[in-house]
Automatic annotation (TrEMBL):
Coiled coil: none annotated. This is SWIM-type domain-containing protein. One of its GO terms (molecular function) is zinc ion binding. Keywords: Metal-binding, Zinc, Zinc-finger. PROSITE patterns: ZF_SWIM. Residues 614-646 form the SWIM-type domain. InterPro entries: MULE_transposase_dom, Transposase_MuDR, Znf_PMZ, Znf_SWIM. It comes from the Eukaryota.
Amino acid sequence: MHDDVLRSSSHRTLMSMGIMENAVVLLCKRGDVSCGVLLERTLSFQSLMTKLFAKWKDLSEGSFSLSYSFAGHPKCLLESDEDLCVLYALTLSSRTECVDVAVKDLVDTSTVSTVVDVCSSSGDVGCGQLVLLDSVGTQVDLLPSFSGTNNSKVLKSAGWCNAIVGVGQVFLDGAVGFRDALSMYSLFHGFKYVYAKNDAQTVKVVCLERHTSKECNWIVKAKLEMPSGYFIIKQFVGEHTCGDASLSYSSSHSTSSFVGRLVSEDMRSDESKRPVEVMKDMKKHYGVEITYRRAWMTVKKARAHVYGDYMESFKELSWFVGAFRASNPDSMCVLERHDSEHFKRMFLGFAACKNGFTFCRPILFVDGTFLKSTHNGCLLSACAKDGNQGLYPLCLAVVDSENYDNWYWFMEQLKDFLEDGRVLVFVSDRHDGLLQAVKQIFPSSPHSHCLVHLKENLKKRFGGLDNSKKKYLVNLFNLCAYAPTVREFEKLLNKLKKEGGVKVAAFLDTLDNQHWCHAYFPGKRYGELSSNLVECFNNWIKKERSLPITLLFDKIRLKIMEQMSARRSASMKWKDVICPIMEKKFKGLFNVSKTWAISRSSDDLYEVRCDPSVSVNISSRSCSCGEWQINSFPCAHAFCALKRGGKNLNDYVDHYYSVDAFHNTYSKSINPVPTIWKDVSVGSDANVLLPPLCNKRPPGRPRTERIPSTGVKSRKITCGRCGQVGRHNRARCKEPLQH
């Protein structure tokens, strides 16, 4: 009864301190001294070690062990985060609020140092002063405290001290678990070992020094126990008699598979982790040195462990197609394979995006980008812009390469998928296969060539010209593209040909004016002249492009699904009639037109006197400057006229820019594709999809970055180490420091 009262009182006290209800107190006892540590769900083993080091200053890594008893188990070890999770789960299931934890010294600390009261007759040390002595009366060296060498860091490998305990220790994971424990134990204690015997039944290991010079007694032997399949230690001599000869920071047994299992969780949160970062992390967090090649293999195996194997991923693709169709029945998924059952190509279109596209401007930005997986390949995509000028992906496909055949197939699937009665406008680069495919599948659709790519192609014709001349000619070409009237365009084009010379004139003659300039373009492209939007999409999925194919499709689906949900929620807070980006554009027009004078001719016709003056017709939504007609959004002159006429600006903006259209764009959702009911035998039948037929791999390391076009300027960065402005940072700096 008394215990219940105390427990209830302590529980109320903890709650009053703001401590969570499910917290458990660990009473850690060392000798005759005990201290309390609060066990919460978020407590890590490393944090527990730090707390104990703070309580007992003379504790150090590897000098003690932690254990507790529980319901018939007198000694349960605490050595890792997993052990803490098990303890926490046990306390919840048994409703225990306090657990006794034994802190046992592996080395007798009483022989390390002693505090004595010394009375020196010589007068060097006064009576009653405290002097720290060791067991033989020698004063303890405090010099390391000035260099920081006594401030040892608690490593993640602190729990590896007792990975091997003694005879009778059981390893539930069999030989793999025993070998991992060996690696942990040897890495923590800093010695190397060799296998005297290593097979499926018996593993016998001796110290490297014993193997070479017969001078060390350390040995461990474990055998397979049937029928359980467990490995049990049968012999263990834990004392090294070789002194410090075997101490080493590295180990040949820290294999890439072993290290890969250690860093797999980090790889899950950081898909772009590099081998050099793995090397640094292993040294910093585990005190282990590994080679670059081992780190490279570690990254490869860790990615396979976290994201799956590239080859095996193709076996799951058929399951993904079926699961995607079941959860998103109105979406479109087309998987093609060769006669030999090898993967050929796959198209994925989202019904929610198709529904929303009807409320977006009828412009499609299409492009292809390379994949970074083992089998290379290419990802084709079609994107649009929502009313707030945001990226709006519609569909994508994975093919073996960017060629006419694949672009033709992609456009066929796109046409079947959209079923859009509007005349679509395409914006893309000038890839031959893409141009032909669009012309054949969408013969009535205007096709705009990306102005950015055209300017880069033009720069290649500038041989021998200085930079100022190049900039001038590129700017002149830019003006040609934006010229609103045929008269102005022809005037600027003739000037460009004259000043650019024969090569520039020859390049311009290869361009069809109706594909790149405003003056001749036959369709309505809302002022969009470049395909940068789809380049943004390629960069948006940069990390996903290195994933196995099934995960690639699923991760992109997940990313688009989350984006649609986030934008739907954000738009619910908008109070204006038109989208924020376009509303901001109106405010900019107001600032531009403050000083202009306006004269009214009729209810719909106005003259805006600026330099030069223009005529605005409100009823036809036109301005003599041409900007309103081209962009389908009021220009600064139209803004003036509308304000003067007392008109509502929102009534003269295309519906595509309205908040209502934005809501409709994101009104539907992409449904999840759960794996909970996925058959474990997926990929094991005879009709499974095989990886694509491999082409000969080009020499050198696989490229992961796009080759920039000629004339593209990369952003210069300032190195944080040497201070130089260039293309390297602190991590890649090889410059000698100047003093």
